[in-house]
Amino acid sequence: MGSAFLAALCVASIALGIRGVGERGTDAALAATARVSFLLFWLSYVGSGMAALFGQTFRPLKVRSREFGLAFASAHLVHVGLIAWLCAIGHTPGASLFVFFGIALVWTYLLALFSISRLRKALNPLGWWLLSNVGMNYIAYAFAVDFITYPFDLGVKHVAEYLPFAILAVVGPILRLSPLILRVTRWPTDPSYSAR
Predict the structure, then answer these.
(1) How many CB atoms lie within 10 A of CB 76?
(2) Which of 2, 31, 44, 129 is the most exposed, having the fewest neighbouring CB atoms within 10 Å of its CB?
(3) How far apart are CA 185 and CA 193, in angstroms?
(4) What is the mean predicted confidence (pLDDT) over 130-140?
(5) For residue range 136-176, what is the model confidence (pLDDT) as tens digits?
């Protein structure tokens, strides 16, 4: 978590150092920290799916999903600080952006809070499943909106900045659903599912 926070802080500092601490530099730092946060989130989001599809090679990713999720929440604190700075310098984003991405932010830290085993155990298994799946999918959706709805007709530089993340945002839910899809498709032929 500390390393993720420091990595995001370094990326933000470099962007602010190059472009200044005004709106332009803060926007660049926000874009950079969003990408750092997204990569950590994505690894947490797809860990189980990657292990289900590709076997033992990706088992460590599944086992460390919680750690990647907490690293994402930690790195995202830098992003939140930059949003606060943007507001402080008089360039407050629109209310609709605050509501949409604010809900994702609430989910981020609610999931981080319930990653504490004592709190998670206070929920029944269905409650934790609902909390984690609704929260993770909403966060994934918020990232997808950010990366996919950006106009790609602004030149090669903009495509290079957004396309890899847009691809990951589209592939992520497919990978996340793959364990369920595999269970459903194996059900008719797997003898372990036979009626007793």
Answers:
(1) 26
(2) 2
(3) 11
(4) 95
(5) 999 999 999 998 876 666 677 778 888 899 999 999 999 98
Element (H or E) spanning 83, and its range? helix 65-88
Tell me the CA distances in angstroms from 27 to 17, 133, 150, 181, one per residue in order. Answer: 13, 30, 14, 39
In this predicted structure, what is the pLDDT of residue 152?
Answer: 63
- How far is 42 from 47, CA to CA, in rounded Å? 8
Put simply, whether the predicted model's pTM sits higher than 0.90 gets the answer: no
The angle at the Cα of 139, spanning 157 to 136, to the nearest 5 degrees, equals 135
8 A C-beta contact, residue 11 and residue 4: no
Side-chain-side CA neighbours of 61 within 13 Å: the count stands at 22
Both structure tokens of 140:
């994934």
Place of tokens 């498709």: 185
Helices then strands (H, E): number in the chain? 8, 0
Q: Report DSSP letters for 4-64, one per residue.
A: HHHHHHHHHHHHHHHH-SSHHHHHHHHHHHHHHHHHHHHHHHHHHHHHHHHGGGGHHHHHT
Mean pLDDT of the chain: 88
Burial label for 128, CB within 10 Å (0-12, 13-18, 19+), is middle
